Amino acid sequence: MNGITGRTKRSAERAVKIRAIAERMGYRPNLAARAMNTRCTRLIGVVVRNPDTGLPSHPQVGDYVNGIDVAVRAAGCATVLVDPGDREGLAMRERVVDGVILVSQFGIGWVEVVSKAFPVRLWLDGRSTDGAPALLRDERGGVASLMALLAKECRPARFVFLAPLGGEDAHYSEAERLAAVRRGAGRLSAPMIVERHSAGIRTGDWITSCLERHGRGTCFIAYNIQQAEILGHAALARGWCVPRDIALVCCDGHGLAGYTWPQLTHVRFDAAQAGAKAVQMLMGIIDGSTPSEPISRYPLVLKTGDSHRMSQEPA
User: Fold this and answer.
1) CATH of the domain at 213
2) What is the residue range of 203's domain?
3) Distance between CA atoms of residues 110 and 140, nearest Å
4) What is the pLDDT of residue 92?
5) 250 and 145: one domain?
6) How many structural domains are present in the chain?
7) What pLDDT, on a 0 to 100 scale, did the predictor assign at position 36?
């Protein structure tokens, strides 16, 4: 069935006929048999669990996996989950997968473990010190579009950027978003204040204190959708409305952000599309091609709602 794999000396016309017959017969390649001939299992490992916390490595891990799985199956391969924290399972996985996609990033201490286990690997929306190729969001481009919109349409008394808790294991996007926000701050109609989350303080308590400190007439720039949700609820509990009393935008939203009322102005990325692109890159590496650049970027989209349009004079 070499006409199905694409590695064949047959004519393109005959290969099409072979695929059509296989489709009618319901034929599916036997990966174990194929591996005996090609020495490739056509199994793609996916790391979606942070071994430090036991939690998913990213809030939208399901969307990433969906995009990865669809693209992997379209290539005639299969996916298998890999847990770096399970040493016995890891030893088994490293013998059977052709390559692995690591979703987001996790503690520096686990990078060496993964690097030794999987020589062929790709970081998806995570960047580490191991030098492996990575597919990352264009944080700078997405945030630049958001800041340009605020400079044009938002006139609050002040802007406040809610920066997350940093550290040596901080996500790469933290520094890139903060740098992009600061670059765009010079064009804003009012001063911008950066509020940094401190260790030992619950996220909800910290955001509530920021809301109380800066008050009505403020445009809050949330780092991610979780911050935006907490801040919106905290404002509502005080009888404040968005965007009447405060403006609210988000640097990292997902599909559900479009169903808020008022609609949240946010930067969105397509996790499923990113997963499919990661598979394409990893399959190329498995087949022997070298990426032209160690880090590739995919664009983000600005979704303009009404949450940034403050309707009264700042207090």
Assistant:
1) 3.40.50.2300
2) 139-269
3) 27
4) 61
5) yes
6) 2
7) 47
Residue at 311 is within a domain: no
Neighbour order of strands in the sheet with 295-298: 78-81, 43-47, 99-103, 121-124, 134-137, 295-298
50: how many CB neighbours lie within 10 A of its CB?
A: 21
Q: Which residues of 83-115 are buried (b: 16+ CB within 10 A; e: fewer)?
A: ebeeeeebeebbeebbbbbbbbbbeeebbeebe
Tell me: do 47 and 117 sit in the same domain: yes
Indicate whether 133 belongs to any domain.
yes
State the pLDDT at residue 34.
55
Q: How confident is the model at residue 169 (pLDDT cuts 50, 70, 90)?
A: low
Element (H, E) at 17: helix 12-25
Rounded to whole angstroms, the Cα distance separating 33 from 98 reads 15
Total H helices, total E strands in the chain: 11, 12
Tell me, yes or no, whether 166 and 257 share the same domain: yes
| Same domain (yes/no): 23, 171 | no
- Is the residue at 15 inside a domain? yes
Q: What is the mean pLDDT of residues 27-47?
A: 67
Quick: pLDDT tens for 74-97: 988 889 888 877 776 666 666 688
- pLDDT category, 1, cuts 50, 70, 90? very low
- pTM for the model stands at 0.79
Beta strand pairing status for 301-303 and 121-124? unpaired
Q: Nearest-CA neighbor of 295 among 137, 139, 177?
A: 137
C-alpha closest to that of 97 among 135, 42, 27: 42
Which amino acid would we find at residue 200? Answer: G
In tens, the pLDDT along 179-225 reads: 999 999 999 999 999 999 988 899 999 999 999 999 999 999 999 88
Same domain, 219 and 106: no
Q: Is residue 308 part of a domain?
A: no
